[in-house]
Write a structure and sequence with these properties.
This protein is mainly α and 285 residues long.
Length: 285
Amino acid sequence: MNSRDGPSMRMWWEARMSSRTSSPSGRWSAEWGVVAALWRRDMLHLLRERSRWLGVVLQPLLFWVLLGAGLGDAFHVEGLEELDYLTFFFPGVLLMVVLFTTVFATMAVIEDRQHGFLQQLAVAPTSRLSMVLGKTAGVTTVAAVQLALCLLAAPLAGFQLMEIHWPGLLVAALLGCVSLTGISFTMAWMVQSTHAYHALMSMVLLPLWMVSGAMFPPGDGLLGVLMSANPMTYMVDGLRHGLHGGVAPVAQVGLWTALGVLAVCSVLSLGLAVVAASRSNRWRP
């Protein structure tokens, strides 16, 4: 019994779990078990903290109303005099909802590291990909619920629900959420506290949202270059095309181009998150 104490106990546990997952079927079962457990965990957090998640929806909508009312008279797009700012800004509000969702949800990565939950996953004979996919699945589901609540205000922005290109809108939202979750997960894994995470969000994610075409139309020169290099630009354009029935009057790229770029960004961001999660020495005590 004493030989299993301390490090010996951990080695015995890893060997026992490895024997259970030595077969391919057992390995896949363990991987999907991690994904399902992390997804269910985020769903329980959603049910228990409904006021917190509801605030993620209400804050962007309030921002949309106030900013739209304040800049409505000053907003003008040449050749599109009928386009008001509330209509133009609404896709940016949807992106803000997804952004806030990924930020608050991946903040739990830091809390789980501090409370030892990630150490428990580390001794399990499963890949870091299952950890990332489980977190991404949970965040995407939460974002879908919040986007559904936010889309109830679409008629107030001038969009008819029956005229929305729902496949394009949903795919753009899904790919955009996966991309932002991968980026946010990587940032949360790299920092040591929630304060540092908030600082990174303020310096990186919020400026990217501001120059994504969410607040003002695409421009020329340096601003146009920044927008073209910004992954959030393609999510805004995808959402904008979807809301306008497939073809938006103002956008940087077309719908299919936006979805293609978002698909590439999703794969790259998930790969980056897996690489970051593999560097377990950053959070081991």
